Amino acid sequence: MPHHPPPAAVTRVGLVARAGLKAAAPVLADMTTWLEARGITVVLESETARLAGLGGRTTAGPDGLPALVDLIVVLGGDGTLLGMADRIAEAGADVPILGINFGSLGFLTEVTLDEIPAALTSVLAGTARVEVRLMLRSRVLRGDACLIEHVALNDIVVGRGALAPLIDVSVSVGSEFVTRVRADGLIVASPTGSTAYNLACGGPIVHPDVHALVLTPIAPHTLTNRPVVIPATSEVRLQSSMSGSDEVVVSFDGHSGCRLQPGDVVSILPAPRPMRLVRGSTRTYFEVLTQKLKWGER
User: How many CB atoms lie within 10 A of CB 104?
Assistant: First the structure.
């Protein structure tokens, strides 16, 4: 798996916790004390500072945090890390993320509370493993106008709203028409996103080293529609053919998006910058998969 060293000198660390995660308050306080004792400036996301009761320190909103730090530590689950990864990409920053998990082991937030000191020590020493994860840049085009542009780590999904019986989408890769999908939805997933919604809908797991995208229909109305893995080198274009009365929406990593009109095109390309994910434990990718998916258990 490609690894890149963290910044030569980490001097400013951003801390972000999942909203309302009260159990993170004492951990945030301990981490702040630990980092400051080693000469590191701690920058707290504004709501995280209030959650932890850590006043008097530098704070920033979630969108402004990536420009102020050399590393962001996320406390919560994969969803919290996903949101911060998207913000880093939108800010055009190149800040690695270390995920601390609360609850069951996450695919991305796989560092346990007991492993925090060792993980931070390895980052500050410059010995931590850092994985490069492909991100997706998507634009919604209506004629010559770009309605919205967004960067996503996991997936872009075109799905039916409450008033639509199904979606009807033409799929092209580069200049070549691929197929027409009539289904409840269509997922375009990165390798990282292959273990998220894609996996739940029967799509394949794609190792992060593989520079590829997965196209997975959701409950297709034709049994011959199957997931397909394609190289992440050409533009993927999804064009809606629904009538104006049908509600079809596109979402980016499940938390933002817009409604599509007939003829709208969703364009998807690899993003200019990947996400840099700090692996703070000794678990390999397959060990995480085995633990999460309980492979080999009856």
Answer: 8
